[in-house]
Amino acid sequence: MRQVLKVFILIVCMAALPWSETPAAEDKPFVIGFSQATTTEPWRLLFNKELRTEAAKYPEIELIVRDGQDDAQKQFSDVEEFIDQRVDVILISPKVAGALTPVVNKAFNMGIPIIVLDRDLANKRYTQFIGGDNKRIGRTAGEYAVARLGGKGKARGNILEIWGGMKSTPAQDRHQGFADVISREPGINSLIEPRDGDWKQDLGYEIMADAVERFDKIDLVYAHNDPMAYGAYLAAKDAGHEKSMKFLGIDGIPAEGVRWVHEGVLTATFLYMTPGAEGIRQAMKLLRGESIPPRVTLPTMTIDKSNAEDILLRHGLIGDQQGSKTKNGLTSIAAGAVAAATRPGGSE
Predict the structure, then answer these.
(1) Which of 174, 252, 276, 296 has the highest Cβ tally under 10 A?
(2) Which residues, in sequence order, are CB contacts of 219 under 8 Å at separation 6+?
(3) Rounded to an integer, what distance in angstroms lies between the CA atom of residue 290 and that of residue 281?
(4) How far from chain centre, in Å, is Cα 136?
């Protein structure tokens, strides 16, 4: 009887304990770790802004952001930190493929979902990749260059290509896509050996400044992003040669590349959407038990004088009084193109 009484008292005491102060398992937030390659480029800053804005829509998310500071070893350590913390999902935009593939594979092998953004890795041991089709963008830029230099089979001219980070997959693909097109044109001559501008405007300037001293005639500059194309334009302008050249870039940020096209600085830019917001959306689907595709390809578009003004109007970056063609918004054709290019998350 005494034993029964002891058990009864123990049960009563346990029931009186403040269990309500212990958080329920389901109240624990999802922890998402995001490793960004660098924040020294405007495109990367927009990338982070859109990712944080999307994450703020989900109160159940705890977002941890680490800046790799343009250093692959720093980024490697950041991912190691996420592994030690056992975050629920890792998002990573790697600086380079080779140095960061091992640590991503390590996390994946431990069962942590990995979503790779923008730059691909050396193998496919991750959950999902989100980004643009850089070879397609390169081919589109090549076709545009051929058209501006005389047309298919008739194109003539000297082209200077300024690479982004040469060890990164976007730069390699943007080069390959472009080369696939212009290599079929015997009248086009590619100047100088590959030069690495590392996505930086100042390096684009230096590469171009060197080129204008070495070559009497440069007809077109193809840079792997808009800041390098703008740097090349400034170097050409300082040498007094900018009016005889065409400048192509990639990114299409409205306040940057699109504005430069509208101002006549760049001839064209090619949209490269940031994958930040879509990365958060895909991570949330995964955390809620939904299946996600292994690859999401973001749409692109060509931006030149024919549509740059409309895009700036749409983003409120110029007033309606400055629009010579569309004072009341976008034309139906431009609206469709821009809507397709800015639609979040669609796979092509």
Answers:
(1) 174
(2) 149, 157, 158, 159, 244, 245, 246
(3) 11
(4) 15
Using left for φ > 0, alpha for ψ between -120 and 50, and beta otherwise, residue 92 falls in beta
Q: pLDDT at position 330, please?
A: 35
How far apart are alpha carbons 306 and 310 in whole angstroms?
Answer: 8
Of residues 224, 270, 265, the one with CA closest to residue 245: 265
Residue ranges of the chain assigned to CATH 3.40.50.2300? 25-132+275-298, 134-273+302-342
Please give the pLDDT value at position 4.
Answer: 45
pLDDT 10s digits, 175-234: 999 999 999 999 999 998 889 999 999 999 999 999 999 999 999 999 999 999 999 999
The model's pLDDT over 46-85, given as tens digits with 9 standing for 90+, comes to 999 999 999 999 999 999 999 999 999 999 999 999 999 9
Q: Within 10 A of 19 (CB to CB), how many other CB atoms are there? A: 9
Q: Which of 30, 95, 41 is nearest to 64 (CA)?
A: 30
Residue of 250, 287, 255 lying closest to 272 (CA atoms): 250
Under CATH, what is the fold of the domain 25-132+275-298? Rossmann fold (3.40.50)
Distance CA(237)–CA(233), nearest Å, equals 6
Q: Which CATH superfamily is domain 134-273+302-342 in?
A: Response regulator (3.40.50.2300)
Cα 225 from Cα 4, distance rounded (Å) = 78
Parallel, antiparallel, or unpaired for β 268-271 and 302-303?
antiparallel
Alpha-carbon span 175 to 166, nearest angstrom: 10
What local confidence, expressed as pLDDT, does residue 192 receive?
Answer: 84
- What is the pTM (predicted TM-score) of this model? 0.82
Separation between Cα atoms, residue 75 and residue 77, nearest integer Å:
5
Q: Which amino acid does the sequence have at 322?
A: Q
